[in-house]
Design brief:
transferase, serine biosynthesis, Pser_aminoTfrase, O-phospho-L-serine:2-oxoglutarate aminotransferase activity, 7-stranded mixed beta sheet, globular, binds pyridoxal-5'-phosphate, 3-stranded antiparallel beta sheet, alpha/beta
Amino acid sequence: MTRAYNFCAGPAALPDEVLEQAQAELLNWHGRGVSIMEMSHRSADYMEVAAQAEQDLRDLLAIPANYKVLFMQGGAKQQFSTVPLNLLGQARVADYIDTGIWSKDALQEGKRYADVKVAASAEPFNYHRVPRQDELRLSQDAAYVHYCANETIGGLEFDYVPETEAPLVCDMSSNILSRPIDVSRFGVIYAGAQKNVGPAGICIVIVREDLLERALPITPATMTYQTVAKNDSMFNTPPTFSWYLSGLVFQWLKRQGGLTAIAAQNERKAAKLYQAIDTSRLYANPVASANRSIMNVPFTLADTALEKTFLQEAEANGLLNLKGHRSVGGMRASIYNAVPEQAVDALVAFMADFESRYYPG
Ligand SMILES: Cc1ncc(COP(=O)(O)O)c(C=O)c1O
């Protein structure tokens, strides 16, 4: 069976090699006579799988020893409330940077708990570039500063890590593991797994240890970083299959040469696609070049009447899930780590052919 090229924004493509490995060991994991899904999370076998996944993630991101890695539930959206509940402490104020739909969602949820200040917004630039460091108006008394490193819908990605006095909190759901980062710059990093990590159902949280002491008393135990950390992310039953499969993806990433190698590939894939868009008359992407996402590439068609045909023909050619987010329309190609360069080549060739047939110069 041939696998299609999948440009879905999430749940997104997983590496063939990883799926084949999971398939091969599905019924009888390592000769134990049961699948990984049918094992106690507290069994020695599973604990080893879980610990190995954490270690591999630590290796890939070079996570310093004074950070806890948590495998939590509730997706990235639950972190929109988990973050204020855990970090506000005695403070009232929290700073948020608005760069699009996801950071705005986080900000809205933050208002339930905090006196939210918008440190900067990309709205005056139509969300086509991120605010610069010198445009951030940071509060003296903020408990933390929240931003989204990559807006999955708008295709807008930060090209710098903000400098802040208060701990920096980053929603990295759609670009974690796409390139090396300096974890020590952050207080908290969180990312839903279903884009660049593994299957849905798990959210990775990387939190600096000194921030574990501030949770508000009303914080549910399952959402308290300290409680989850003390129990090695097994305070309650974790999504064992997602954790296991994410671990296989981490090992696959290591085999690709780690994040430096994968970043070079990602840059190349994105450059090819943006070049195809910029050199065409039919396709367009409005984002400032420094802030163009290397993971999510939205584009519009000059003649919107062609959109339906574009999607139909793309699908017939094995290029799936190119429809843009329902809130903005247009097209979007998500080209996460697991989307091979051949997929981008095939998409670029299809786009050129489509243009020559339906929108000739
Ligand atoms: C940047 C970003 N943050 C948060 C979310 C919400 O994630 P979840 O559905 O896991 O709650 C998404 C989902 O697409 C996202 O792209």
